[in-house]
Amino acid sequence: MLGRPPVLSYASYALDNWVRIRENLPVEIGNIIISQNFLGGLDEDWFILIHIDIVDARSAASR
Fold first, then answer.
1. Which of 17, 41, 48, 59 is the most buried (most CB within 10 A)?
2. 3-state secondary structure 1-63
3. Are the C-beta atoms of residues 32 and 15 closer than 8 Å to each other?
């Protein structure tokens, strides 16, 4: 329907695949979890979570 090949983009897999554990606390390791795992395990979680932490830190620095 969208005319795109069936690929999993980085934005879909990492940047839009997490939630805060406690909404009133900042986005940081320890307060974010993965919404949807594909393979499972800590390696996959850390691969995504560390990128979210880095992107948030860079965003905060530019504010």
1. 48
2. CCCCCCCCCHHHHHHCCEEECCCCCCCCCCCEEECCCCCCCHHHHHHHHHHHHHHHHHHHHCC
3. no
Q: Where are the domains of the chain?
A: 10-61
Q: What is the pTM of this model?
A: 0.75
> Do the Cβ atoms of 32 and 48 come closer than 8 Å?
no
Q: What is the pLDDT of residue 41?
A: 86
pLDDT along the chain (63 residues), means of 10: 82 90 93 90 90 88 80
Q: And the tokens for 11?
A: 């934005």
